[in-house]
TrEMBL record:
GO molecular function: zinc ion binding
Taxonomic source organism: Paramagnetospirillum kuznetsovii
Record's keyword terms, sorted: Metal-binding, Zinc, Zinc-finger
InterPro entries in the record: Znf_DskA_TraR
Start and end residues, zinc fingers (dksA C4-type): 35-59
Annotated SUPFAM superfamilies: Glucocorticoid receptor-like (DNA-binding domain)
Keyword hit for Amino-acid biosynthesis: no
Start and end residues of each Zinc finger DksA/TraR C4-type domain: 31-65
Protein name, as recorded: Zinc finger DksA/TraR C4-type domain-containing protein
Upper classification of the organism: Bacteria, Pseudomonadati, Pseudomonadota, Alphaproteobacteria, Rhodospirillales
Length: 77
């Protein structure tokens, strides 16, 4: 069954690629523990949840707010 072999091979390649991308992300540089935006220290609890956090909770919330706003159409809200 060539088709099955091909499908199995594709599935394996996909799995390996996904694994590599996860490993690559985990191998990235850890957070400095200092907020990139306000240079305040990032909360220990936040770093536990995301060892690579680059913003403190306050700035991250602000950035998320801006990101969500920029996705909406027009200056309505
Ligand atoms: Zn900050």
């Amino acid at each position: 069954m060539d088709d099955l072999d091909y499908a199995a091979e594709r599935a394996q390649v996909f799995t390996e690629a996904a694994l590599q991308s996860v490993l690559g992300r985990m191998a990235g540089p850890p957070s400095t523990g200092v907020c990139r935006s306000c240079t305040d220290t990032i909360e220990a609890e936040r770093l536990r949840a995301n060892p690579k956090a680059k913003l403190c909770a306050c700035c991250a919330a602000e950035e998320e707010h801006h990101r969500l706003r920029s996705h909406r159409c027009g200056p309505r809200s």
